[in-house]
Amino acid sequence: MTNGAVMLRFWMFLAAIQFGTTRLNFAIRTTWNGDCVKHEPVKISLAPSSDGGLLIKVLAPFFNSPAKPNGPAGQPFPGLWDYEVIEAFFLNDKDQYLEVEFCPYGQHLLLMLNGQRKMVKDQLPLTTFNATIGGDRWAGEAILPRSYFPPNVTRFNAYAIHGEGSDRVYESLYPVPWSQSEPDFHLLGYFQQIDMTQILNNYDSKHVSEEWRPFVTN
Where is the secretion signal located (predicted)? Predict the structure, then answer.
């Protein structure tokens, strides 16, 4: 495929997902510890999907570093956090959270955590995730099933990672203070408020899905 055809495909995809028409829009403008990023910020948008889930869209610079994961597009890829990736975390007040990771090449990784860093399910399937690369940018769109979210989600954070070795770059929507010695995306106390009623239709904060029922006690 020629460069012109690739760019045309990218812009057609970008137009199709109608980025910017969603309910909540975020831009990652800082590194993990609060420095300003040195490129166009990663953008993330959230909105209700027509099937009752959550529609998430991303638009980001494409760094092409590290190399492409050795796995099929559209499928979960273990350890995706070691690649070029965008992440979103949805947290409740009992430290139960959904972690979502997307790669520009089409791989994804969804994890459920019951307590800080305590993973209870991983490689959750997605029926809808599309990503495309156009020059030095990439865009993606996915539908997150409602059942993957823990009850009463109240806080949120998002991250972007790229580069290798000493050039590895970690970026955060809500960064941690300079007193932290290294990046840690599971410092839940720095997450900030999110209103799930804006991005999930008929949201019931008390509802416990079958996915989460084994881990929720009254």
Answer: 1-22
Coil, helix or strand for 55?
Answer: strand
Q: In terms of residue numbers, what domain contains 28?
A: 3-215
On whether the CB atoms of residues 125 and 76 are closer than 8 A, the answer is yes
Both tokens of 9, joined, read: 């495909």
Rg (CA), the chain: 17
The reported pTM is: 0.90
- Are 63 and 104 within 8 A, CB to CB? no
Using 50, 70 and 90 to split pLDDT, how confident is the model at 177?
confident
Instruction: Report how far residue 26's alpha carbon sits from residue 147's, in angstroms, rounded to the nearest whole number.
Output: 23
As a whole number, mean pLDDT of residues 88-117 equals 98
CATH of the domain at 183: 2.60.40.1190
Work out the pLDDT band at 20, boundaries 50, 70, 90: very low
Write down the H helix ranges in 102-212: none
Q: Where do we find the tokens 């045309």?
A: 8
Looking at the structure of the chain, the number of domains it has is: 1
